[in-house]
Amino acid sequence: MTELVKGPPEGIRVHMNDEDITDIQATIWGPAGTPYAGGVFRVKLALGKDFPQGPPKGFFLTKIFHPNVAANGEICVNTLKKDWKPDLGIRRILLVIKCLLIVPNPESALNEEAGKLLLEAYDDYAARAKMMTEIHAQVPKNGKGDGNCGVGEGPSGVNGPLAKKHAGDKKLAAERKKLLKDKKRTLKRL
User: Fold this and answer.
1) Is the distance from CB of 44 to CB of 23 less than 8 angstroms?
2) b/e string for 86-125 if b means 16 or more Cβ within 10 A?
3) Facing residues of 6 across strands?
4) Could you confirm whether 149 is annotated as catalytic?
5) What residues have CB less than 8 Å from 190, skipping those under 6 apart?
6) If residue 168 lies in a helix (H) or strand (E), which one and from where to where?
7) pLDDT at 131 over 50
8) How confident is the model at residue 74, as a pLDDT?
9) Strand, coil or helix: 146
10) How far is the CA of 90 from the CAs of 16, 37, 161, in angstroms?
11) 179/155 Cα distance (integer angstroms)
12) Residue 7: its pLDDT value, please?
């Protein structure tokens, strides 16, 4: 686990819980070219008593619109079910979850609505997934949040320079807040 924290796969950061080693959390940056691009997603792997003989349970802690993610965040992927092998390791599981953001599997959908949209109306699926990402999976612009990712911080974990504030920022922030509120209202109607 220490190696995984120090050298995680690209676009993933692992967070250790020193009090409970069976509680593994990670941050996954939404892959470019997907409706999840620009999003920062928290995931959790819960290791059972039979781990590594039995697979861990995977959950998205960040709300996401995805065929293979249930309303409670549970992740359905064959690697965590019938294709589990004790030698796969945590790194591989996190990579599989990230790949699921690139190539969803509508045939094993836990979210039937997302699976159906993906198969029948991809543009509608992508728009809804993107809207959910914009609402629930954004890095806080004020630098406050869960303390695990700061402003300008990307998949590499390197902080970029912070922009200086100017008078137009307040107006822009108010417009963004209104847009986010409108998106949330639209989402509730769906």
Assistant:
1) yes
2) eebebbebbbbbbebbeebebeebbbeebbebbeeeeeeb
3) none
4) no
5) 128
6) helix 168-189
7) yes
8) 95
9) coil
10) 12, 23, 32
11) 26
12) 82
Which pLDDT does position 132 carry in this prediction? 96
- The reported pTM is 0.73
Beta carbons of 46 and 22 less than 8 angstroms apart: yes
DSSP label of 69: B
3-state secondary structure (DSSP) of residue 185:
helix
Cα(121)–Cα(181) distance, integer angstroms: 25
pLDDT tens for 143-167 read 444 433 333 344 444 333 333 333 4
Encode pLDDT of 167-186 as tens digits: 444 555 566 666 666 666 66
Concatenate the DSSP letters of all residues of 29-62 into one string.
EPPTTSTTTT-EEEEEEE--TTTTTSPPEEEESS
Element (H, E) at 28: strand 23-29
Check 28, 40, 45, 76 and give the catalytic one: 76
**What does the pLDDT read at residue 180?**
63
